[in-house]
């Protein structure tokens, strides 16, 4: 510590004072000037430094340095002579400049400080993150956004090696390479996706002093973009579904203006996009108020409305639903379901089923239940007959199992891998029977298909044809059939070329053919041809011993068909069934057991007598006279008439022991008409 005396405390002195006062290696002993108002004197006394007017009064031992600040030469010489102590002479003006410079420096420092504070403020307020490191890879600066994006607090950044804070950082690499990296993608440890630009910091002397990174959080943008892509994909998919749908679809906006329709809509309604899109919904398919408008008004879906649309007046079912998003109605979507197509398909399906039924021989001898002596004889004959090519005539009452035998014979023969065609001669209208059986040539009649059509005989070639109800054939058809049997060939309707065939003919009848021959309604020569191997199937009454086995078989079959679990019949019920004479044979037994099972509760396992319908037939006969009229009409007249007709036919069948010829006679309708009614009322189990 040096003791200093300042002499001459005018302008220069005061400046010196300012310079020296703050150093800790100097101590002001005193400040003197002959002018007590000199700036230095005033300042010194404000600072608590001793002051005086004559420097000589202050020269004493412990003063190390005397500084003459004024530049006054007399005082200086005097000083130099009087004191041996180190004396520094600084011209006042120099001290003044130094002091000014210092002040300026201070100001600059302050300004820089302010500037850096401002810069920090700005950097902290930008949305992009910013990290600055020095050439030692230590973090020097990090802004608020960087803290937010990285989820790392400033304290954990500053002074740390950047590699320890941000995994995968490439800032050290930028320091080494001195090359900037622009818009690079990086996924942070917290899952955020950022896009970052890294720059080396190089000063004017080309010295590398660090590097910085500026980065943006693009997580939201990327997610939005991904969501957008997802939405686009969903939209494309939905459009593809709508476009390819067979259901006609139309969409309107909240005001009822058409937005879109699909090709099926045009196909069904005949309306094109230009008729619908952009037009008010009043132009759509419905007569009266548009369904869309109704739905928009009520905000309620409309389902299953039947309409006829388009030039073809197609039957459609219409469903319209409102589109409601966040509680607001945005439009409505209508779907037309073409029922006429279903109708066509259903009838095609029915036809296909019929064909399949005709082509299949479903049953084998294993399906024929009968251990009684009478039945054993029939089965034996049939099995032997199956192995020969001879025509077989199956005889027996209605419902005895003639069709079952025909199937079994085919399946037992060496033709079993070829077709089995069943033709019910009574069920096919006489007018088309010939072309059905023998086919026709192109142009044979109006409506004939191009290229002609194969008949059922041709279909059955190498297989078997089963002609049921052969007694119902007209004499004209009998003559045609005889030719087939004699020549083994057929001629298509409208054709001349005979076609040779190899078909096994199985026929069946429950009418007395011998009587028909006498009445001249059946050709004798045909009878002999068909009757080469007659097989008589006994009635159920003739083989009543088979009743238990048949009941068991029928219960099992019905359980399977209707998902029931019936096990047996009670003894009392069995006795009741046994005493009945079964005019309708096995078919009637099937009907009776089936109806008994309907009357049983789901959990009942044994058929009791009270489940079995009255078998005396008297009740039915009594009922026949009065029509049952529902108290309150709840159906159309046509429905009521149909129901009555169905019930009436059923009762006539019961009365006539399920014999179709007798039933038709009693009802005074043709047997063909009876077949037609049976099909109409799904009563095929009677045939
Ligand atoms: N022996 C039997 N074993 C099992 N089921 C039988 C037997 N006989 C007949 N059925 C059944 O009784 C019903 C009537 O048989 P099927 O149609 O073969 O009689 P059908 O003699 O051809 O009658 P229809 O002369 O009226 O044409 C069928 O459901 C058949 O499965």
From TrEMBL:
Keywords: ATP-binding, NADP, Nucleotide-binding, Oxidoreductase, Transcription, Transcription regulation. Residues 115-161, 234-278 form the PAS domain. Residues 368-598 form the Sigma-54 factor interaction domain. Gene3D superfamilies: 1.10.8.60, Homeodomain-like, NAD(P)-binding Rossmann-like Domain, P-loop containing nucleotide triphosphate hydrolases, PAS domain. It holds the Pfam family PAS. PANTHER family: SIGMA L-DEPENDENT TRANSCRIPTIONAL REGULATOR YQIR-RELATED (PTHR32071:SF121), TRANSCRIPTIONAL REGULATORY PROTEIN (PTHR32071). This is Sigma-54-dependent Fis family transcriptional regulator. It comes from Virgibacillus siamensis.
